[in-house]
Each structure stands twice: as C-alpha cells, then as structure tokens.
Amino acid sequence: MKDLRRYLVLKYIQYLVLSSSNAVSTFLGLLGSLYAIIILQSAKVSSKSTTVLISSLAKADVLVAVSVVSEVVLWTFGAGVSSTAFTPVLLQNLLTANSHISCLLLSCVAFEAYLITFFPTESRHLRTVKNARLTSGIIWMLVMVECALFQTDDFLKASSTSALTRSPCVLWFHFSSTAAALLRSLSYFLGILLRIVNVYIYYKIFFSMSTR
Question: Principal localization (predicted)?
C-alpha cells in the first residue's frame, strides 16, 4: 500500500499540480502505472474500493501508451504510414481523454479518503467495490463519448467547410461544433474546480490527522 500511495502522489503531481504534461512526467507516469498494475495483481493486495479506483487510474495510461507508440511509428515511417488510423488530432484527443479520466479518478480517491477520515462508519455502505467499479465505468464511458465528440468536431473542421454547408450534414456540423466548444470550456473550468477541491480535501485531512 505504501507503493500505491507513492503512485497516487506521482499522479497527483502529474495531473493536478503540473499545469501541463511533459516528457519526463509522462514517462514516469507510464512506469508508475505499469508498476501499480503489477502490484495490484498480488494476492497481498485486498480488493477494496480504493484499489479498484487505482486500478482504473493505472489502466487509463493505456491511452498514453497508444499515443506515444503511434507517434513513434509515424515519426519513424513518416508518409509510409496511413494517417487515417492515427492522426495527430486523434492522438491529442487520446491524451486529453487520459487526463480527464485521471483527474476524475484522482478526485474520487480524494473524496473517498475524506469519507474514511471524517465519516468512516456512515460512509461504509458507499465505499464498496461495486460502487467503485460503477463509478469507474461511468467515468470511462463519459470521457470516451467526449473524446468521440472532439474527434468528430475536428474531423468536420478538417473537411471542406463549403461542401459541408451545402450538404444535409450542416445541422450535425453546427451541433458538434457547438457541443465540442461548450464541452471544452466546461472541462477547463471543471479541471480548475477539481484542483481546488482536491487541495481543500487534503488540507482538511492533513490538519485532522495532525490534531489527532
């Protein structure tokens, strides 16, 4: 569990402290996720709601791994690789999805730590493996829908605008563009809010433990 706590600290720094990811933090994050997945396979680690959330957090780095490997392949083979499967826009959307999933899961871990610290008995029925799996599944589903919407919007923008405006898809083009713009704004402000909430939660937990 000490190693998993260190992993969580690494992820908090990567997603909720640093303003943007860099090569060093991404590499360390991938190594940490791989190590966390290996640890979670051990029989010594009990199946709890926290470990379920951490497992889902570690698996989210699969999106980063796919993006990194794809960029390496594109850089190595250049024009010899078809850009229809892995475009730069798609790779960026995968990184965005990873960031959003990680931030939400880290916030769930922080909220659970808050419940354990201040409401251990009252919140026991909420802190179950089933609820953790359900929460993780909902987060993954919502962020994947977000990623698909972003990718659709970017694809339509890359297409011929004049052709789209004369086609029956004009309503879908305007809808996806507006929805994507609103979602990007919402995710930006939600990211700021999650940072504030996480700082507040751990501030309360730290001083609560200090007084004890």
Answer: membrane
Contacts of 191 (CB under 8 A, 6+ apart): 103
The predicted-structure confidence for 63-121, as pLDDT tens digits, reads as follows 999 988 888 877 777 645 444 544 678 888 999 999 999 999 999 999 999 999 999 99
Q: Residues 6 or more apart from 1 whose CB is under 8 A from it?
A: 45
Number of other residues whose CB lies within 10 A of the CB of residue 6: 13
Number of domains in the chain: 1
Tokens representing 143 are 């962020």
CA nearest neighbour of 33 among 74, 64, 69: 64
CA 75/CA 99 separation, integer angstroms: 23
Domain encompassing residue 192: 64-210
Q: Name the residue among 184, 191, 195 with its Cα closest to residue 92.
A: 184
Whether residue 3 lies inside any domain: the answer is no
Global pTM? Answer: 0.88
